Amino acid sequence: MDKKILRLKLGLQEDDEFVLFTVGGTKLGLELLRVADRASTLIKRETGLTPVVLTGPRINADFTNGLKLVRFTPDALPYFAASSCVVTQAGASTLHEVSMLRFPCVVVPIENHWEQLANARKLKNTDFQF
Fold first, then answer.
1. What's one GO MF term for it (predicted)?
2. Which of 12, 18, 38, 58 maximizes the CB count within 10 A of its CB?
3. Angle, helix 30-38 to helix 40-47, in steps of 10 degrees
4. Number of neighbours of residue 80 by Cβ within 10 angstroms
5. What pTM does this model have?
6. Do the domain assignments include residue 75?
7. Residue 89 located in a structural domain
């Protein structure tokens, strides 16, 4: 489906290209979202992309620096598909989705988290380019 049509279906602006930050279902990713919030003006200015945060089900945070906030949805794939890039932690499900569907992504594994680091390494060793 065309990204512009998909953005409209998601309640976003048709021409508003965005980078999607998502951290899954726990509060472990809250720091990545806070960094995105602090950098949102820079992201918009340098890339022309609007920063959008898709929160996990247990994240109940507000952001004040220009991030568009999308509360948890069990169907994140349309947001991935409508975005220009996905910035995510290294959760197995999310990495599987972005790699199989060839969505551009930046992976930020949780520091010292063996599973996240292993997932990121596995993705790095595939033919998927990010």
1. hexosyltransferase activity
2. 18
3. 60
4. 20
5. 0.86
6. yes
7. yes
Domain interval for residue 95:
17-124
Apex 122 CA angle, 38 and 97, nearest 5: 65
Query: 95: helix, coil or strand?
Result: helix
How many domains, in total, are found in the chain? 1
* SS3 of residue 111 by DSSP: coil
Cβ contacts of residue 114 below 8 Å, gap of 6+?
none
CATH value at residue 99:
3.40.50.2000
Tell me the per-residue pLDDT of 75-125, one tens digit each, with 9 for 90 and over.
Answer: 889 999 999 999 999 988 888 888 888 888 999 998 888 999 998 888 887
- With tokens 């060839």, the residue in question is 102
Q: Are 29 and 111 in contact (CB under 8 A)?
A: no
Whether 129 maps to a domain, the answer reads no
- Long-range contacts of the stretch 28-35 (C-beta < 8 A, 24+): 28/89, 28/110, 28/113, 29/56, 29/59, 29/89, 29/110, 30/59, 30/61, 32/87, 32/89, 32/108, 33/59, 33/61, 33/63, 33/67, 34/61, 34/63
